[in-house]
Amino acid sequence: MHREAESQLSSDTDLEDPDGKNAKTGKGLAAKKGKKALGDKAKGGGAGRVTGPGWVNGHHQENGMENMTLFEVVKMGKSATQSVVDDWIEAYKHDRDTTLLDLINFFIQCSGCKGAVSGEMFRHMQNSEIIRKMTEEFDEDSGDYPLTLSGPQWKKFRINFCDFIAVLVRQCQYSIIYDEYMMDTIISLLTGLSDSQVRAFRHTSTLAAMKLMTALVNVALNLSINMDNTQRQYEAERNKVIAKRANDRLELLLQKRKELQENQDEIENMMNAIFKGVFVHRYRDAIAEIRAICIEEIGVWMKLYSDAFLNDSYLKYVGWTMHDKQGEVRLKCLTALQGLFYNRELCTRLELFTSRFKDRIVSMTLDKEYDVAVQAIKLLTLVLQSSDEVLTAEDCESVYHLVYSAHRPIAVAAGEFLFKKLFSHRGPEEEGLPRRGRQSLNGSLIKTTVFFFLESELHEHGAYLVDSLWECASELLKDWETMISLLLDEPMPGEEALNDRQETALVEIMLCAIRQACECHPPVGRGTGKRVLTAKEKKTQLDDRTRVTEMFAVALPLLLAKYCVDIDKVTNLLQIPKFFDLDIYTTGRLEKHLDALLRQIWEVVDKHTDTEVLEACSTTYHYLCNEEFTIFNRVDIARSQLLDELVDKFNRLLEDFLQEGEEPDEDDAYQVLSTIKKITTFHNAHDLTKWDLFTSNYRLLNTGLQNGDMPEQIVVHAMQCTHYIILWHLAKVSDGTSVKGDMVTLRKQMRAFCLMCQRYINTINNAVKEQAFTILCDLLLIFSHQIMSSGREQLESLVYSPDSSLQAELLNFILDHVFIDQDDDNSTDGQQDDEASKIEALHKRRNLLAAYCKLIVYNVVEINTGADIFKQYMRYYNDYGDIIKETMSKTRQIDKIQCAKTLILSLQRLFNEMLSELGFNFDRSSSAFCGIKELARRFSLTFGLDQLKTREAIAMLHKDGIEFAFKEPSPQGEGSPPLNLAFLDILSEFSSKLIRQDKRTVHMYLERFMTFQMALQREDCWLPLISYRNSLQAGADDDTMSVISGISSRGSTVRSKKSKPATASKRKLPEGEHCWCTLVEHLFYLPQQPILMMHSPHLTSTVLRDPKKMRPEDSFTATFTMPAEQHPHQPVPPHRRGSGLMEDDEEPIVEDVMMSSEDRLEDINEGMDFDTMDIDLPASKNRRERTELKPDYFDPSSIMDDSVGVFHFL
Q1: What average pLDDT does range 815-826 have in this prediction?
Q2: Whether pLDDT at 1047 is above 50
Q3: Which GO terms describe its biological process (predicted)?
């Protein structure tokens, strides 16, 4: 017993037979290659078995109930893994064959296989035969297996599965794993399964083998420790003098060391078998998850047992796999390496690996997978901590710029790297410095931050830099006392002072740090939005805001006084008060500092004319003038005094400026401009209606029109100021705070100003015209019929609708100033070579187009005015494609039929332009004609797949197209095709959107315009008619009607002869579709009199026109009749073959989701109807380059792909 106790190793629990650990018959894995050594089997089959207390007939018994297999026990997870393993070990001691068979079936069942290995198979079949047999038992209908199933139960199963293997090896580590039976059999089975072509077997067995290997590594580590301890005990005993040396103890230690060495040899054999049989093959498996398992576990081995595994023979696998195509595998490589570099004792063994794979790790900081990039930066941070000499300056710079990344986790990781590199090293000369102030350590670190910010040359992203450093350097960034000292205090002797550029950067960083502390959320563009703060974070936020107020209430006036003339510094400093807690001015008795701040703001307004500075002053006054705080009266008085002075100065200067007979000099013009600019800026945020500025501004604008020599900036700001006057007046009228007569005054002022803007649109100066156009569009939208919505019917008298002349002027302005080439744009004053100027000019044109398109979308101008906009879709797709497409979508939601008529009108105008340029004998293969045809195809795709929904609109489109094609006779006389006949070739692009019944109806309508001779013509000039007729007749044999919701599920349309009733075998037409059929039939065949059309329940219109005011071309009489005098070649319409749309048709209707053969599949994304589904498509390259230029004009829902070519019409 003493000998057994000496050889016993430390363990949590050992339920094995103490004698069993020495009952070994040999070492190493049995060399059976798929055939298991059965050992001593129990005789008599199962009848003679003696089982353990927790295992009955191969099943786990719990509370006397025996019904669960080992797989079910682990799956349920109700029993502790330790007790399950203990019960299995006890059963194994009594009947190891049956119990081992249960373990084999456990692995089989964990793979999702429904089969089971029987005792007969176990005894007489090779492993490969067993695996082949089990492969046949898989469920072929499903590819799922336990490791891939979702849900909390299966996630827990994976954890329990791994725990079971680890606990099993740990509990068997003293004897059973050395019996050359259990481990040999399991390793042989898992090796065979891992080589299977069945993914479930391969995945499950690889995970089991890797976890088994990890458990064996722990056993080997314990053996190594025990061997070292035994060796030290032996050396200590042997070094004793002979008199005190215990020979029996030496023999015992020698025997123990021999046993430990034998056990370690066996464990090494097992690990070698797993590594060479499983890992070496599976670390490059086709399945990324299997590869990730291998890399994750080898990282664990190297960390646990670094003496054996942390060498280049194993590290090379991690290095190679860092080039894996799958992000999750690369991520496992990085996390494995992090565990190694975190331990500084191991870093010396990684020098060769680091030198070999450092470049790859640095490049992974730009990985397309954000998680991989984050972990790569964190790994480099650990490398940096281990040694400053490993990473070169170029390596560090590649990480530095990532602090400006839009992805916050990457930026935060890069910020930590930057902080460790630049701020964590303190020299001996920095010890003993004061904690705060200019001479403190923080003062030096803040200077370093400023230098880095300037060297990065991304000065507009100070907020990003602060946010990146916030988590690791918040205390430094919140040291505003030191920042103020660096700005206000004089430098000490020998200290280098900050230059102007550095001071500007420090002010910006200080402002960004204040904003971050008071708002507690990342800057715009980094992060999804504001998150809910914890109680601790809220307290920190309040404390920081109080500190900011107390500190800057005193320092801000001093800073403004020092930098009063510096535009950049003053603009940033004036944003600080909006983060103040204004109550502190009263509770802290800081009123004198408030007065000093107001005086400094007055000084800034007086000295500056820059728009940004004036807007900052206006915003500061607006924040301080809060009626909820006691300081309101004090600030309001100061604001009123400032505005009084500005208005008086403006009126005085204006009188002198507008003196008749005198030529205003430049100084007078500058004074007027600076004053009106200040008033306009303040009027944006403050109500100045009590100063009655409308008269002065209107007089100024009127004089500018009459004389024509008014400086453009004065006119621009006068317009903007007048615009604000009207809006503030409207706000008072809407709120009901106005007095009697204000409504009439507002109406007069608004209409007079709109007429003034209309006159200015026709002036020469581009800046003035663009300002007038933008303001006029805004006013027309604000004072449209929608002003009466939400219960504001009392504002009906303010509604202002543009007349036809104004609509024409607005449209002409868009055509002349928006749809131009870059080289033709003179708005940038000769700076076209500057890329920034081109982008700014494009931005301006996009805003002008959006302003007009909003008038179309909100039904302020006629929808058909959009025809001249829509026809530019292809030519200017790169610049305005998203705006035009969204406008088409919105107009279709308002009125589908009118939108369709507008689309066909745009094609007709392009066709007429082509005729006027090329003549009537043009070549239909010319680029101009092909461009129109391509545009028609694009228009067709925008109608989507739901043909029933757009049925009436498509029918009307074909009707207008046919009439246009036959409208003009041939200039060559009788026998020649009509002048516009080629338009039918363009119209055929929309034929695929017609359903079967409507194709037949449209074809009948086409025949009304055809003579008998036309039907017989086969010359090339008649090909458009032939092609169009064929596209309409194609539905008789191969209808490409799309599957539409609600109809396809109820059945197709009915085809019945008028002479005989429909039989029961034929499908009946749904009632809803019958209504559509009747409606489309009316569009083409009703008598020549006005009818009341049935609208789709989906159609919504924001304008109801008065029938009395309807133009002739809008009435159904004018639209649907074809006077004979307009078509001299038209025969008498043939007799209709039936009163309905349904004709004799015995062929089944084919419902398919394909377009016609002329529609290319790659453009299917543009065919989605906007009000039926939303499809997110990637933005084109050109759109990505101009992301910052495009505001969300009217919530665009879809964007065309960048594969669309741009065609320039001649």
Answers
A1: 78
A2: no
A3: cell division; chromosome segregation; sister chromatid cohesion
